């Protein structure tokens, strides 16, 4: 999607407390320079809000290309989860969300290493939290979205500290996969 020269990728809208916030990667330059930006609504009712620019998320120890952000809400706090490159791997990272536009140091929680995560490209992106029965998962897209190998994987928070990579368990097979020649 292109809006007034600004590229927005996989936006996430949340209303943690107070006004709604819209998190989206954007740049007015090349796609290689995407960073996460925040728009803030004037109320918690999305349709009645007037929207304003709240700022850019600057990751203290990793201020690089960051897309597909979402907010993970746990009893221990709110967390900023996003996709970013680490060498030739597009990985998932997590940081504590300190304010709606400020995060703490980041931790890599998933690297595309399984065969179904590396079709066409080494990709983990598009994280989305799921909660059920006291359990927490992050479902994510894997492999290149440009081909027929796009899959959905999942991580489960099995430990107590979401900022510790060893607290996350990656499942060895996809939840969903492309079929019948469908792309992405």
Summary, kept brief:
This protein has strands spanning about 1-5, 5, 10-15, 20-25, 35-40, 50-55, 65-75, 75-85, 90-100, 100-110, 125-130, 135-140, 150-155, 170, 175. The protein is globular and about 45 Å long.
- Shape assignment: globular
Cα-atom radius of gyration: 16 Å
- Average pLDDT number: 86
Largest sheet entry: 5 strands, antiparallel
User: Approximately what portion of the residues adopt beta-strand conformation?
Assistant: over 45%
What can you see in these coordinates?
The protein is an all-beta fold. It contains no helices and 15 strands. The protein has strands at residues 2-3, 6-7, 9-14, 21-26, 35-40, 52-56, 67-74, 77-86, 89-99, 102-110, 124-132, 135-142, 151-157, 168-170, 176-177. The strands form 4 sheets. Strands 11, 12, 13, 14 and 15 form a 5-stranded antiparallel beta sheet that branches. The chain has a 4-stranded antiparallel beta sheet with strand order 3-4-5-6, with no helix packed on it. The chain has a 4-stranded antiparallel beta sheet with strand order 7-8-9-10, with no helix packed on it.
């Amino acid at each position: 999607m292109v809006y007034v020269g600004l590229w927005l990728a996989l936006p996430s809208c949340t209303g943690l407390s107070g006004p709604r916030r819209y998190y989206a990667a954007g740049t007015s330059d090349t796609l290689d320079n995407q960073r996460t930006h925040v728009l803030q609504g004037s109320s918690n009712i999305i349709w009645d809000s007037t929207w304003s620019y709240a700022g850019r998320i600057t990751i203290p120890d990793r201020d690089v290309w960051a897309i597909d952000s979402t907010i993970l809400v746990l009893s221990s706090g709110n967390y900023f989860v996003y996709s970013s490159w680490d060498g030739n791997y597009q990985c998932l990272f997590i940081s504590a969300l300190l304010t709606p536009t400020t995060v703490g140091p980041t931790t890599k929680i998933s690297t595309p290493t399984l065969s179904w995560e590396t079709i066409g490209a080494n990709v983990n992106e598009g994280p989305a939290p799921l909660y059920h029965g006291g359990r927490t998962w992050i479902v994510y897209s894997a492999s290149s979205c440009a081909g027929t190998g796009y899959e959905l994987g999942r991580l489960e928070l099995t430990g107590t500290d979401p900022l510790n990579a060893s607290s996350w368990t990656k499942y060895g097979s996809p939840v969903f996969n492309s079929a019948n020649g469908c792309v992405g």
